[in-house]
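Subject: for your reference before the review

Hello V.,

The reviewers asked for a structural picture of the protein, and I figured it would be easier to keep everything in one thread rather than splitting it across files. Below is the amino acid sequence we used in the manuscript, unchanged from the supplementary table.
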Amino acid sequence: MYARKGLIYLFALIATASVTAFAALPLQQASPGTARATRSIGAAATSQPALRVTGIAATPKTLAPIDVLTVSTSVANDASRVDGLTVQMVVFDETGEPVLQEKQSNIGIAQNGKQAVYWVWRIPDRLADGTYAIQMTVLSGGEREVASDTRDAAFRVDRSLSDRYSARR
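And here is what came back from the structure prediction:
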């Protein structure tokens, strides 16, 4: 029994020493022009699509309730073809509260390609005067965020354009 226990301890010591020695080995320097290797234990390598929101436009920049706002964005794909994406638009008021959330799903983008996505939204009468920010988010098939942007994405609701607003009511 003691011999068996000793043998188990010996195997455990050898295994521990092997793992410690492996972890202490230095990585070799990669030659110029080659990819550098990394080492990871217990984690599978996964590659995420290289997606970018390349622009958001809202036109017109100032409008009254019941006017129509057109929002567009482009998503660039710097990797191989990707399918099953969702582009989500969220409009926030000046307090940071969301007032609109819309999605377009099942979007595919070719390798090194770009895809434009558009929304047309009639500004509801209930929307208060003020500046509204737009955020675009690209979600993977599992609804996980893979890209997002809010740059230059705003519009203003202004009831002082009341001549047009009153005439339509």
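For the response letter, the relevant points are probably these. The domain at 51-168 is CATH 2.60.40.10 (Immunoglobulin-like). The helical segments are 2-24, 162-168.

Happy to draft the paragraph if you're swamped.

O.
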